């Protein structure tokens, strides 16, 4: 579709420091992104500006420096640690005589490499097509010149319109298929909600250790590596929590500063697991000196996907790389767990995480001691046994069953509705 320079794996990186905080990016994180994409960095060109230049994003002198660096190093691609407009990309490509990629395109490329499931591949393709659709004109600049006279008009506009129409049709097709996937996910969520099974969703900045923690808890064996966006496809596993029972743990894609809006929109079905979770485990790389900024970046994405109201528990991970930290639970002023310090890699502090989750999720649990006469013991005991809520049971001298139960408030309400006032007569105050 594109008449372009051949793209390669050797790149010149461009990182600009801006005085405006909203434009600020991290160079070390950028280099990790490039490494995650499998690109070899030949040289990093840095500079400072107050605001982006409309033509080249950088100043004309810096743009010329980039072009000379490309010629000197023999690089096949220039990658910017910033979002470029289609016009800026086109101008830089003409100047550097090689392909130019911005931060959004780089993240999309990493996602394209990592997607494994049918749904993940569809979501990535949708994001790529939306990104490409604004840049189509660049691929056909050689066809855009309209010549005067009958029979001499170029085919550029016709070809461009054809490509746009094909893109629109492909996007519609992907959206239809993703709608089916979303419907299937919704059915699964409804079934879990009906069974009152709580969902715990892992969220956090990319490379915070979510998949390592997920594997440590569930032995799922999902791919985990010290690289950005190692996880793209969501994985669900069932776990058991004391006093709560079964729960679903979901591993999701990591977040990053200035996450492309096309990606957020494309991964809406996946991120639905986060929106409808009972609690979020916000995994944080505690060893990162900028972990507070990473927490803020994740909170911004959670707000964007309308999941900021979901209760969350901080998981301060990677304490194995720190000298002065040990596994512990942090409580707030009301004695409710707000953070757990642990090492997912070494498995230290996992029991404390389970305890904290139990304390957070058990708030909707009820506990009662019942004295059930012989005539009703069979029916009631079988109901409690099926709900796996019996804590202790014994018989008194009159043959009454003394039973201690602990169950979800919703289950207790259902039994109360079914049994009416009879159940209330058995409660020992």
TrEMBL record:
Q: Per its Swiss-Prot or TrEMBL entry, what cofactor is needed?
A: Mg(2+)
Binding of GTP: at which residues? 204-211, 229-233, 251-254, 317-320, 343-345
Q: Where is the Hflx-type G domain?
A: 198-365
Give UniProt keywords alphabetically.
Cytoplasm, GTP-binding, Magnesium, Metal-binding, Nucleotide-binding
Record Pfam families: GTP-bdg_M, GTP-bdg_N, MMR_HSR1
Q: Per its database record, what is this protein's job?
A: GTPase that associates with the 50S ribosomal subunit and may have a role during protein synthesis or ribosome biogenesis.
What HAMAP family does its record include?
Answer: GTPase_HflX
Name of this chain's protein: GTPase HflX
Q: What is the species listed in this Swiss-Prot or TrEMBL entry?
A: Vibrio agarilyticus
Gene (UniProt): hflX
């Amino acid at each position: 579709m594109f008449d372009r320079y051949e793209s390669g794996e050797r790149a010149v990186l461009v990182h600009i420091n801006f005085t405006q905080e909203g434009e600020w990016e991290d160079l070390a994180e950028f280099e990790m992104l490039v490494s995650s994409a499998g690109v070899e960095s030949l040289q990093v060109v840095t500079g400072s500006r107050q605001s982006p230049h409309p033509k080249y994003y950088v100043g004309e002198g810096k743009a010329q420096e980039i072009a000379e660096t490309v010629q000197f190093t023999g690089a096949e691609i220039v990658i910017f640690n910033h979002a470029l407009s289609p016009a800026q990309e086109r101008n830089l490509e003409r100047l550097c005589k090689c392909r130019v990629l911005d931060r959004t395109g780089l993240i999309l490329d990493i996602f394209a490499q990592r997607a494994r499931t049918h749904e993940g591949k569809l979501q990535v393709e949708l994001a790529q097509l939306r990104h490409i659709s604004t840049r189509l004109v660049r691929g056909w600049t050689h066809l855009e010149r309209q010549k005067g006279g009958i029979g001499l008009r170029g085919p550029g506009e016709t070809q461009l319109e054809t490509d746009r129409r094909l893109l629109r049709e492909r996007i519609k097709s992907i959206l239809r298929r993703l709608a089916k996937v979303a419907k299937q996910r919704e059915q699964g969520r409804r079934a879990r909600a009906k069974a009152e099974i709580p969902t715990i969703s892992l969220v956090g900045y990319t490379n915070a250790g979510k998949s390592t923690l997920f594997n440590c808890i569930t032995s799922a064996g999902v791919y985990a590596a010290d690289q950005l966006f190692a996880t793209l496809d969501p994985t669900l596993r069932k776990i058991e929590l004391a006093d709560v029972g079964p729960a679903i743990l979901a591993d999701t894609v990591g977040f990053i500063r200035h996450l492309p809006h096309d990606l957020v929109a494309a991964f809406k079905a996946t991120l639905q697991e986060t929106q409808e979770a009972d609690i979020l485990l916000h995994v944080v790389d505690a060893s990162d000196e900028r972990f507070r900024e990473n927490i803020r970046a994740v909170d911004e994405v959670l707000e964007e996907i309308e999941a900021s109201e979901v209760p969350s528990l901080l998981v301060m991970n990677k304490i194995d790389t720190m000298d002065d930290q040990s596994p512990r639970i942090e409580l707030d002023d009301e004695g409710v767990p707000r953070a757990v310090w642990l090492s997912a890699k070494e498995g230290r502090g996992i029991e404390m995480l389970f305890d904290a989750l139990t304390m957070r999720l058990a708030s909707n649990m009820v506990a009662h001691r019942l004295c059930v006469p012989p005539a009703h013991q069979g029916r009631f005991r079988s109901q409690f046994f099926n709900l796996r809520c019996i804590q202790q049971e014994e018989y008194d001298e009159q043959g009454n069953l003394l039973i201690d139960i602990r169950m979800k408030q919703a289950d207790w309400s259902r039994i109360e509705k079914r049994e009416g006032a009879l159940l209330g007569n058995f409660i020992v105050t």
